[in-house]
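Hey, I'm writing a tutorial for new members on how sequence and structure tokens pair up, and I'd like a real worked example in the thread rather than a made-up one. If someone can provide the structure for the chain below, I'll link this post from the tutorial.
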Amino acid sequence: MAKKGKGFFGALGSALGSIPVVGKVKKAAKKKIKKAKKKLKKALKKAKKKLKKKIGKVLTKARKL
């Protein structure tokens, strides 16, 4: 399978990224996005765990009846 090109905007981003000031801003934005994704992933994991625990309690009560 052949590797796809960057396209117009990809090339534009790479060209702008080579300028130090823009590169720093891009890097900072990427870092912020990565941090937000990590936070969301953690929250979803916590919610899933809580839900599993609740379902487990319901099943335990059902067995006791």
